[in-house]
Amino acid sequence: MSLPPHSNVGRPYTPRVIDDELDRLLAGLGAVSLEGAKAVGKTATAMRRAARTMRLDRPAVAQVVSADPDEAVRPPYPVFFDEWQHVPAIWDAVRRRVDDDPIPGLAILAGSAAPPVSAPPTHTGAGRIVTRRMRPLTVSERLEADGFPANSRDTVCVSTLLKPGARPSLHGDSPWTLAAYARAIVASGFPAIRTLSPALRDAQLSGYVHHLTTRDVQEANGAAANPAAVRRWLLAFAAATSTTTSLEKLRNLATAGDDIRPAKTTALRYRDALERLFVYDPVPGWKPGGTALSRLGEAPKIHLVDPGLSAHLLGVDEEALMDGVSTSLVDAVPAVRDGGLFGALFESLVAQSMRTYAQASDVEHLHVRTHGGEHEIDGLLVRRDQRCVAYEVKLAGTINDRDVRHLHWLRERLGDQLLDAIVVHSGPAAYRRDDGIGVVPAAMLVP
What we know:
about 450 residues; alpha/beta; Rossmann fold; five-stranded parallel beta sheet; about 40% helix
């Protein structure tokens, strides 16, 4: 299939990891759905591939499409339905068109929320519409946007780590210092926000949170929501970044000082709405079969969609991170964090990137934690054959034996099932330790 030229977007476009996968899918399949939080770049990425765009978040367009969804799915192709959840019937219309006219690249759908719970059910689209998740800019994409393409710097490919056989040699230097990571975190990974001045960026993120708490959650719930309460839940998630804090403890954080605490069902509704909006973005726990690892916890590791959003909610800037500043809300979270708040947000930045790299390699991204917390692995990339790569995240320039003890524990239990193990850090260089554990700066990782 011949795709339209990538020239119909006005602002400069940062190449995304998902670009090649989208082009490949559209060249062979009828329809692709891009899901992800608002502002991650779905519209810009999809419009570069679309022959025609229907913006369904605009009432006039939504009314026309609602009147006859099947008529909206017509040439020229691909037709792009942006924020399709506003007209849920378009999903089935696309599915039917793929059934009736199975040519590649008929449609692209993008949504920043699952359809409202009050909306009529839609067909899953299985076998007709392939869904891919889009997250904010990875570290590699941010470097690309700033004029440091992968072919001009030292890199370590995640896809190579996932290959069976001899572990690849690791070498090279990082283009980022510790201060650069702090700057990247507070700037956020939202393409249209990160290059703004600090004052304008803060205003945009404030608007993002305001819209999220006053409108988006209510639409996702299909019922009224208390904006102040939703904001407190966002704050609780931000404070608990990179921990496995329980829902009950989060509820205590979100309702501290209230005379009457909301019911657990209300708390679950807020959490579920934020997850439906792709803003709450937890990393699931790994539950393998067999007995080698039978005492693993299932609690997810808490992350918001972008650590910059967490930093904004907590009121910390680049200088505060470099000074090791924390907040009373963060200090109230019953969890041990390497590197304090900066360490937690750095881990969130790495997890955000690694989840995109994992999707590019068609592997799962999970975390590992024993029930009692004796052992914890920040990230695990699991292939379909259950062989995997483990990584720990450390906000440190040098790595010592204590930093790799959990990776050794996992290697002892998994044996050859563990293809590789690395520590992702903020230091200057990549190398392999004498024990075989890799050490890689976050800024050197690419898909």
